């Protein structure tokens, strides 16, 4: 079953820049997909369309049965509750503890404290940070902060995890830790993961599906892909 | 219940935000306070002027003197005509004999002089005393009656009263203009405070959006913040309205400037004014906040 369907998708910004030009793509439930390509090739726009931060100018982007282009602004939250997003810059709130940061989405949904606690602890256990509940983000290493960010994205048990260069700010060793967490989420929970990255080593090592974008179009799509020698990082 | 938990959290967040941006909140609160004090003064003055104008209007009379050769039949015709006028509240007729008797009763001198007058030699005139409903139309009503046949002359405040009443009207209208202008300024100031709160919490708002918080839940705390700024700003004006007016009433003995202008008793109306101030504060706060949220909170 296809979880993400992108059909003849064009995205042209108001300043005339074309981010995607007639993109066609399908991603099945439970897949782990890397999206790679040079800067400005449309990777970020593509994943922004998946969580409806951007709308396609033409064509269809369907995520979990929801047509993103037709989704009204007031209903976007319904889509976002079905997915988790991990950012390069973590986007944690410095004045909240690890527990409060992870509980943040559930709190804003108005869940009961008794419902929130077990879900937060489970998410933190998933990323191996259960013992850090009372710490503040600035007391943690960058890798740990990214894992907190993953826990926050997973707390709502999403079907899809969108990762926007999650290892972009991390050293190779820490990147590996984070990738191990993502891999186990994919394998154990069956969560679909779409990850944008520039990290050649990670892509080559993980041997997952690799989608290469070039000037807004699909340049290659390989099931156990790798970075090729001529591809820019 | 989920909606209540969201509501409670929004109230909590809104209130916390008031104290988190304390200096800005203080500016907004002070502006609301000053505006509402002026609003309160305007309302109190307006109520008092209104009451005084009503008192004045109640006492306003037009005296109509009939021609000396007019008869009681003429008087009946004229009385019916006067009663048909829209601004006339009551009409009282006194024949010259009645007037003479009244005057004789007032002093011995009058009594001595007037005692020798009979119906033919009585130089006084038959008269009507008319009470009007509104001071505004006094002049018009008097002029209308003056045109009637068998009416000799008409006497009334000759413009003085009207001028006073219209002056009060001008005072009332100008206070309304000033108050509206101040209310608008306050709304803008509160709007600005909220704008800065939104800016200082932009990271939090961005994360809320991305983790699937509904727009309504994101906006609610800011609306409550504006609401609280307005409510806090109305506390001092409310106290001034209730206790200040009671104090002024006691101190002045219930009269303003002279015994003519009677103040309205500080009964339940001061509490009504206080409620109005609270409502204005809350509405202006929420409106200012709403404006900012709509303009600056892009979600």
Mean pLDDT of chain B: 84
Q: What is the global morphology of chain B? A: elongated
Helix fraction of chain A by DSSP (H/I, runs of at least 4): 25-40%
Query: Regarding CATH, which class of chain A?
Result: Alpha Beta
Overall pLDDT confidence of chain A: 91
What's the number of structural domains of chain A? 1
Chain pair with largest interface: A-B, 24 and 20 residues
| Helical percentage of chain B | over 70%
Q: Main beta sheet of chain A, described?
A: 6 strands, mixed
Question: Which characteristics define this entry?
Answer:
heterodimer, A: Rossmann fold, 7 helices, 10 strands, B: 299 residues, alpha+beta, Alpha-Beta Plaits, 4-stranded antiparallel beta sheet, two-stranded antiparallel ribbon, 6 strands
What does this structure look like?
The complex is a heterodimer of chains A (233) and B (299). Helices cover 33% and strands 26% of the residues of chain A. Chain A is built from 7 helices and 10 strands. Chain A has helices spanning 43-50, 76-80, 98-108, 113-126, 142-154, 172-189, 200-206; strands at 2-12, 18-28, 32-36, 58-63, 66-67, 83-86, 160-164, 192-196, 209-214, 217-222. Chain A has a 6-stranded mixed sheet with strand order 6-7-8-3-9-10, with helices on both faces. A 4-stranded antiparallel sheet of chain A has the order 2-1-4-5, with helices on one face. In chain A, α3 packs parallel to α5, α4 packs across α5 (142-154) and α5 (142-154) runs parallel beside α6 (172-189). Chain A is globular, with a radius of gyration of 17 Å. The model of chain A has no long low-confidence stretch (mean pLDDT 91). Helix content of chain B is 71%, strand content 9%. The mean pLDDT of chain B is 84. In chain B, α2 (22-59) packs across α9 (215-233) and α7 packs across α11 (268-296). Chain B is α+β, with helices and mostly antiparallel strands. Chain B has 2 domains: 2-56 and 162-296, no CATH class; 61-156, Alpha-Beta Plaits (2-Layer Sandwich), CATH 3.30.70. Chain B starts with a helix and ends with a helix. The interface between A and B is medium-sized, with 24 and 20 residues.
